[in-house]
Amino acid sequence: MSEPLLRIEDADRVRTITLDRPKALNAFNEALYDALTDALLEAAEDPAVAVVLLTGGGRAFSAGTDLVEMGERIANPDFEPGRHGFIGLIDALEAFDKPLVLAINGLGLGIGLTVIGFADLVFMADDARLKTPFTSLGVAPEAASSYLLPRLIGRQNAAWVLLSSEWISAAEAKEMGLVWRVCEPAALMPDAHRAAAVLASRPISSLREVKRDMRAPLRDEIRRARERENDGFARLMGGPANAEALAAFAEGRDPDFTNLPPGW
């Protein structure tokens, strides 16, 4: 019997969803993409849920895509994707029309950062760290982050986040406008739930209308950005840079991109 991948609790019309693959630092494999997508779809339809609060169990918010499974996907032509997969999760996040609050604990890599583009309020523990490791993995951005991050934090901040693959501290994330509040670790969940409960005390119909109106001007650009990114990811995944990055991960070393073919 497979272990549950999420913990779900309801209080004050707030549904708290906790990613629960702590041994894998809540890295997203196909099963977790499916589980979170289903949870968001269910919360969207549940009339008793006004707000969703998303956090991670254990030492991490999310370590991003499961690199072991990424390697298997590249190596195995018969790899079976999930029912929703990564694209299904991003569709669910983009369509989610109730407030989404994040409480970022520990590490947030890849989707553990780019999910911020779809959130309405973001809380972050002061000892947490974020990064998008796309260039260190030899791949392209994801989740419309090439559009949403420049809009959220400005072009140069977004360029550093997306191009450098460097860690971003909680203080830096707050200064950039990437997160709304920075909290002591012990206060993270109480503070995030308190704000979520304030939102949840308002009429769901009004919350939905405000969110729809705020998101409406972005939808076409999000779709176009995702198409560009998905095309770039497909072209780069399994290429020389990505192969070196995955080999380095498997061997426990830093990748060396200095001897790639010209242009890579």
UniProtKB/TrEMBL annotation:
<protein>
    <submittedName>
        <fullName>Enoyl-CoA hydratase/carnithine racemase</fullName>
    </submittedName>
</protein>
<dbReference type="InterPro" id="IPR029045">
    <property type="entry name" value="ClpP/crotonase-like_dom_sf"/>
</dbReference>
<dbReference type="InterPro" id="IPR001753">
    <property type="entry name" value="Enoyl-CoA_hydra/iso"/>
</dbReference>
<dbReference type="Pfam" id="PF00378">
    <property type="entry name" value="ECH_1"/>
</dbReference>
<dbReference type="InterPro" id="IPR051053">
    <property type="entry name" value="ECH/Chromodomain_protein"/>
</dbReference>
<keyword id="KW-0576">Peroxisome</keyword>
<keyword id="KW-0413">Isomerase</keyword>
